[in-house]
Recover the amino acids of this structure.
């Protein structure tokens, strides 16, 4: 399939087009509401708390309420492995990018950490869920396991200059999203060895499923979780728009370092993932399918993680630079996410990823 045909199929796919327009339009609504004063200064923070403590945990958990098969299990395992290996790779290969830009000390370390750790949960998961559905959320939730481990260990140690603290270990494992992910993952993995019940699915066929498959055995419980899951994307996008509407762009736009960082974070890091995953897939060392590749790339093409920026501010590690890069990279991610979705759809048509 040539490039033009792939491009045509991408833009005639209503699911992809509607996901792109939904993301952009709802972010613009949030931006407009903040500019008009409809949304207050604290509105974005309140929305963020709702998304992170309620909507995203529900989204992560319900994504595991699906049958398990050999291919999905294999892909999930590869996504988990890459979600850990990739951070180790980035820790080593990010140094040259900022050494070339003649940064050093705290400035270089902050830029490096912010480049490695993106807002995969708050910014990434709602988008992959909107475009790639339950499987996208499943892969994204599993991919985030490695992210959480390194964010609360490596990033904290580097930014604080201290050893790992018990409080951070608690944050790592007692986070509602982490709990929902691990509970959902375990239930998904063991569904073949637990007691089953006979149910009639939506197609009218009778099948035996694990008793806790609430998508088929307890719709009265699954439905409220589905409603909560549905809040994740629109509320996250409104919060992003509201945040952008409350910040002055002047200083961030005039900072050349912030522009360079944004290029590395939103363009270079995803490209590195595409190149390495392509090599690993064609050599069958760690093959991933189209959906897994897309999820990983979108998750990595996100602005810096809020926790990482908070580290920079809390420990006085180039706090102003961290704030400027966060703003500029968020704006760039909003613009580039639709582009990445198109690029990934075109890559899917090449046949490199099954």
């Amino acid at each position: 399939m040539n490039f033009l045909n792939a491009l045509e199929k991408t833009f005639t796919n209503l699911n992809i087009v509607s996901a792109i327009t939904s993301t952009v339009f709802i972010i613009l609504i949030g931006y407009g509401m903040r500019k008009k004063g409809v949304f207050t200064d604290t509105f974005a923070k309140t929305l963020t708390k709702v998304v992170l403590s309620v909507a995203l945990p529900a989204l992560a958990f319900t994504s595991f309420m699906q049958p398990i098969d050999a291919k999905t299990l294999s892909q999930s395992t590869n996504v988990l492995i890459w979600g850990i290996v990739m951070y180790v790779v980035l820790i080593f290969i990010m140094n040259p990018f900022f050494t070339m830009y003649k940064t050093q000390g705290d400035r270089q370390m902050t830029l490096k950490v912010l480049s490695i750790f993106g807002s995969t949960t708050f910014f990434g998961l709602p988008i992959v869920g909107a475009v790639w559905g339950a499987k996208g959320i499943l892969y994204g939730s599993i991919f985030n396991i490695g992210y959480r481990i390194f964010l609360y260990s490596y990033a904290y140690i580097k930014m604080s200059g201290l050893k790992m603290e018990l409080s951070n270990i608690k944050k790592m494992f007692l986070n509602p999203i982490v709990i929902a992910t691990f509970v959902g993952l375990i239930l998904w993995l063991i569904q073949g060895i637990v007691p089953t019940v006979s149910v009639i699915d939506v197609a009218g066929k009778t099948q035996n499923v694990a008793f806790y498959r609430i998508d088929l055995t307890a719709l009265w419980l699954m439905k409220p979780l589905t409603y909560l899951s549905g809040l994740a994307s629109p509320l996250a996008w409104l919060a992003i728009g509201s945040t952008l509407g409350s910040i002055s762009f002047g200083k961030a736009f005039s900072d050349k370092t912030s522009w360079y960082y944004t290029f590395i974070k939103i363009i270079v890091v995803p490209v590195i993932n595409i190149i390495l995953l392509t090599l690993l897939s064609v050599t069958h060392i760690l093959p991933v399918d189209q959906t897994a590749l897309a999820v990983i790339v979108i998750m990595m093409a996100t602005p810096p993680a809020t926790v990482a920026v908070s580290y920079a501010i809390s420990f006085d590690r180039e706090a102003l630079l961290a704030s400027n890069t966060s703003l500029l990279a968020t704006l760039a991610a909003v613009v580039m996410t639709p582009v990445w979705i198109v690029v990934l759809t075109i890559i899917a048509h090449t046949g490199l990823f099954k």
In short: The chain is about 75% helix and 5% strand.
